[in-house]
Design brief:
alpha+beta, Alpha-Beta Plaits, 4 strands
Length: about 100
């Protein structure tokens, strides 16, 4: 089942600069993560927000553990698994349309 993952309340310093650096580290434009259906990032009510739709929760978890967290650690210079954590909310997806 597809899931929407909405990430908000990032630690201090998150935003376009960190996002662009992490995306570049992952070479995300050249190799899309397995299972990613949709991705959107930007400010909502002044807070950095990332919204993804994944084919499954397992696809998101694999991306997070194998690609995202190592890239954040390299860019930030600290282990992102320690310290303040963003809020990740999971929502089941009944349907989505893909052009």
């Amino acid at each position: 089942m597809a899931v929407a993952m909405v990430t908000t309340n990032f630690p201090e310093g998150a935003g376009t600069g960190m996002y662009d650096s992490v995306a570049a580290e992952m070479s995300i434009e050249e190799r899309m993560p397995e299972g990613l259906i949709f991705h959107w990032a930007g400010y909502v009510d002044g807070k950095w927000t990332i919204t993804d739709i994944w084919e499954s929760r397992q696809d998101f978890d694999t991306f997070r553990d194998e690609l995202l967290l190592p890239a954040v650690e390299k860019v930030a210079g600290t282990d992102p698994r320690t310290g303040p954590q963003p809020t990740i909310t999971e929502h089941p997806v009944h349907n989505y349309v893909k052009p």
